[in-house]
Structure formats: C-alpha cells, structure tokens
Amino acid sequence: MTSHNSRAGLDKQATQVQDMFDKLAPRYDLLNTLMTGGIVNYWRKITTEAIAPKPGERILDLAAGTGTSSVPLAKVGAKVTACDMSHGMLAEGRKRYPQLEFVYGDGTDLPFEDNSFDAVTISYGLRNISDTEKALSEMHRVTKPGGRIVVAEFSTPTMTPIKQAYKQFLPRVIPALGYIVSPNPTAYAYLAESIAAWPNQQDLGQKFINVGWKNVEFRNLTGGIVAVHRAWK
C-alpha cells in the first residue's frame, strides 16, 4: 500500500504519525470511546490487570498519548512515566493529569537507561512505530531483569462472523466515522489500514521472542479484535 501526502502510510514515517496525533490530541480519547462503542474501557481494564502494577514499581507507559492508560497504574502507587512522540498528546496530557510524569520519546530510541523499569507497556501504539522489533528490543533494554512487558493491540479476529464483520467495518466504518467526528479524518483511514496490515497474534508473539523476551503469552479480547501479549525479561 502506498503512502499519500496527507496520510501516514504503512511505512509509518515518524514525522507523519507524530503530526497526525498532534492534530487528534484534544479529542482522541473521546473518539476512541465512540469508535469502539465504549468497549475500549473494558480492554483498558484487562490490560491494567495484565500489567498488575504494584505500589513503588517504576512503569513505562509507551505511546501513552494523553495519559489515560497511565492513570490506573499510578492510582495503585506505581511511579509511572508516560512517554509519547506526539508533542500535542503530551501537552494535552500535562493539562489533564498534572500528577503524571510526561516524557517525549521515540519508541525505537528510548531516552532511558538500561534496566530502569519493573514493567513496560504500550496500548494501541506499537503498530504506529516504524520498526516493531526495534521498539520491542528497546522496551526489553529498559526493563529490569525479571520485569515484564504488556502490549495491547488490535489483532486478527479468531471467529468467522467477527472476521467478516471486521473486514467490512475497518475500511468503511472507521474512516466514515472519522469524517463525521474528527478534525483530521485522513488519520482514521490510516488507522484502519494499519490495523488490517498488522501481524496476527502468533506472528507478533514471535517478534517478542526474536528480541529476547521470554515466556510469551497472549489473551484474545472480543473474539481477537484485540490481543494482550505479555512476556518477561
């Protein structure tokens, strides 16, 4: 699939993706809730349970956007670093959640020391990073030995009726909704494409293994529309 000037294509050039999310920042969380019919809140709850944050732990929330995914981790007393490469998202997050630490960072070159975090996590952001294995490798580098990674990402539906509905929904409904509610509707065409082109659960799990993560496991949510992968260093 080719890249268009107005759209971050599947080559995911960092500046295009950054620009796209900068424009979406003020309404991004609302749009996600609308697009998923609210089920994103259930997915977030399951992801938080998979991370299992503990008081005093250092946790990196990568592609944290406005920090919505970081808040439940901080609530239990973990020291959360919300990291993103969109200045617009970070600015919005600092306004909403001044209690959180927000840091600018590129997922392929994280600005943190080796062995810094007890856990690292990323929700619906891994597919927007230009090099998936480089990002997983960087997350491995900054995780302490014995630490864990949790990745929530759109995936491949496992049930035929959901597969068929999903094929219709992604290319048609998401961009159509984007035109109605978004200040940057081309972003939602990109999001639909990036979800459709993403590796399935097993193939993504193999990428974890390739860069050194151990005991990789995954859980399908909503018939495989989303998968939560977890592994250990």
Radius of gyration: 17 Å
Count of helical stretches: 9
Q: What is the first-to-last residue Cα distance? A: 35 Å
Q: What proportion of the residues form beta strands (DSSP E)?
A: 15-25%
Mean pLDDT: 84
pLDDT < 50 runs, ≥5 residues: 1-10
Q: Globular, elongated, flat, extended or rod-shaped: what is the shape?
A: globular
Keywords: Menaquinone biosynthesis, Methyltransferase, S-adenosyl-L-methionine, Transferase
Family: Belongs to the class I-like SAM-binding methyltransferase superfamily. MenG/UbiE family.
Binding site for S-adenosyl-L-methionine: 66, 84, 106-107, 123
Pathway: Quinol/quinone metabolism; menaquinone biosynthesis; menaquinol from 1,4-dihydroxy-2-naphthoate: step 2/2
Key traits:
233 residues; Rossmann fold; 7-stranded mixed beta sheet; methyltransferase; transferase
Short description:
The protein is of the alpha/beta class. It contains 9 helices and 7 strands.
Account of the protein in words:
It contains nine helices and seven strands. With 233 residues, the protein is an alpha/beta fold. Strands 3-2-1-4-5-7-6 form a seven-stranded mixed β-sheet, sandwiched between helices. Pathway: Quinol/quinone metabolism; menaquinone biosynthesis; menaquinol from 1,4-dihydroxy-2-naphthoate: step 2/2. Pfam families: Ubie_methyltran.
